[in-house]
Amino acid sequence: MISLTENAAKEISTIMKHEGLNSEEVCVRIGVKAGGCSGFTYTMDFDDKKRRVDLFFESNGLGILVDKKSYLFIRDTVIDWKYDLTHHGVNFENPAAKMTCGCRVSFMHDGPEQTENVFTPTW
C-alpha cells in the first residue's frame, strides 16, 4: 500500500484546488524512474486515467495510482509533507530504500524481492 499522511493530503488537496482539479475525478500518480543521484527518482503528478497496469489506493480522501512496476520499488511508502527549515515539501518514507540522497527524491534500491519460486537446475 502507498499512503499519504494527513499533512501531505492537505497540501496536495490545496494544490489540486489551486489548479482547478476535482479530487473526486483526479488521482495522485506516484512512480519511479531511473536516474537521480542514487539510481532511482520518485515521480509525482496528477492523473484522471487508471490504466490496466495501475494499482489504486485511497488515503486521507485522495486516490493514488501507481503502476505495478514502480510498486515493486515503493511498496509500503508513506508520503509526508515536511515543514522543516532544511526541507519544505514532499518527503517519501520508503522502507525499501537502501539509501537516499540529500535531495530527498532520489533513492537506491537493491531490486524487488522475489516472491515466486524460480526453477533452479540441479546440475
Tell me what the structure shows.
- The structure is a single chain.
- The chain has 123 residues and is of the alpha+beta class.
- Helices cover 16% and strands 38% of the residues.
- It is built from 2 helices and 9 strands; from the N terminus they run βαββββαββββ.
- The chain has helices at 6-18, 68-74, and strands at 3-4, 27-34, 40-47, 54-59, 62-67, 78-83, 88-93, 99-100, 106-108.
- The strands form 2 sheets. A 6-stranded mixed beta sheet has the order 4-5-2-3-9-8. A 3-stranded mixed beta sheet has the order 1-6-7.
- It is globular and about 60 Å long.
Gyration radius over CA: 16 Å
Q: Estimate the strand proportion.
A: 35-45%
Morphology call: globular
- Number of DSSP-assigned strands: 9
Largest sheet: 6 strands, mixed
Strand order of the largest sheet: 4-5-2-3-9-8
Task: Give the ordered list of helices and strands.
Answer: EHEEEEHEEEE
Low-confidence stretches: none
- Average predicted local confidence, pLDDT: 83
Ends distance: 40 Å
Structural class computed from helices and strand pairing? alpha+beta
